[in-house]
Design goal:
Elements lengths: L2 E4 L6 H12 L2 E4 H11 L2 H11 L6 H11 L9 E4 L5 H14 L5 E6 L2 H9 L1 E4 L5 E3 L19 E2 L6 H15 L2 H7 L3 E5 L4 H12 L7
Parallel strand pairs: 1-3, 1-4, 2-3, 4-8
Antiparallel strand pairs: 5-6, 5-7
Helix pairs in contact: 1-9, 2-3, 4-5, 6-7
Bound molecules: adenosine monophosphate.
Length: 220
């Protein structure tokens, strides 16, 4: 099963993608995570992407399309994948269609997570995560049980993304509305789009996704 999760930054795509990955044995393909790994490793892509990401803008279509084309060709993607953060422009959506077709793959579900801008700013600016296991927390709504320690794996390596600063969040939302929102009608026209209320509680959203995908998904 191949799934695209759409929605603005902070909509909860990463959290839900991890739950779906675990429940359905699919691979989560987060282009944001791939780019952050490239930045940390200092690769050529990472060097090009760093300043763009810090400014809250979108990295070039060429880089992203090349990255995803290569990744979905890897053997673990044969069983299905969840795209989280890609496509983010109409050009990326068109390229995705072409690369899926060329490999004999299809998109089974395209789901939009809808959230108000005001809620997104509060969500993103309080968020931090565990570097070791990827668990996501929030200062107000979901703090770790013991300050500075991950509930899931006990790691003390908790971090905040540099682009989660309030001033960068505004640029990321602008990029979303100007460049990414136009892919919503693109998928609506292709007849594949469905929506969930991303403002609902995290576990309720998982319940809605489970209904749409027709599979049980644990809220963990
Ligand atoms: P995310 O973790 O999905 O919020 O992505 C973090 C940042 O990585 C974004 O603000 C962009 O700068 C960059 N990025 C991630 N995915 C894409 C994409 N599909 N197209 C362009 N830039 C991307």
């Amino acid at each position: 099963m191949n799934i695209v999760l759409l929605g603005p930054p902070g909509a909860g795509k990463g959290t839900q993608a991890k739950r779906i990955e675990k429940a359905l044995g699919l691979v989560q393909l987060s282009t944001g995570d791939m780019l952050r790994a490239a930045v940390a490793a200092g690769t050529e892509v990472g060097l090009k992407a760093k300043a763009v990401m810090e400014a809250g803008k979108l990295v070039s279509d060429d880089i992203l399309i090349g990255m995803i084309a290569e990744r979905i060709g890897e053997p673990d993607c044969k069983n299905g994948f969840i795209l989280d953060g890609f496509p983010r422009t109409v050009a990326q959506a068109e390229a995705l269609d072409a690369m899926l077709k060329a490999r004999g793959y299809k998109l089974d579900h395209c789901i939009e997570m809808r959230v108000d801008d005001a809620a997104l700013v509060a969500r993103i600016s309080g968020r931090y995560s565990c570097k070791n296991c990827g668990a996501v927390y929030h200062d107000q709504t979901r703090p770790t049980r013991v300050a500075g320690t991950c509930d899931s794996c006990g790691s003390k390596d908790l971090l905040r993304r540099p682009d989660d600063k309030a001033e960068t969040v505004a640029a990321r939302l602008k990029a979303y509305h100007e460049q990414t929102a136009p892919i919503i009608p693109y998928y609506r026209d292709h007849g594949a789009l469905r929506s969930v209320d991303g403002m609902a509680d995290m576990d309720a959203v998982t319940g809605e996704l489970s209904k749409l995908l027709g599979k049980p998904i644990a809220a963990v």
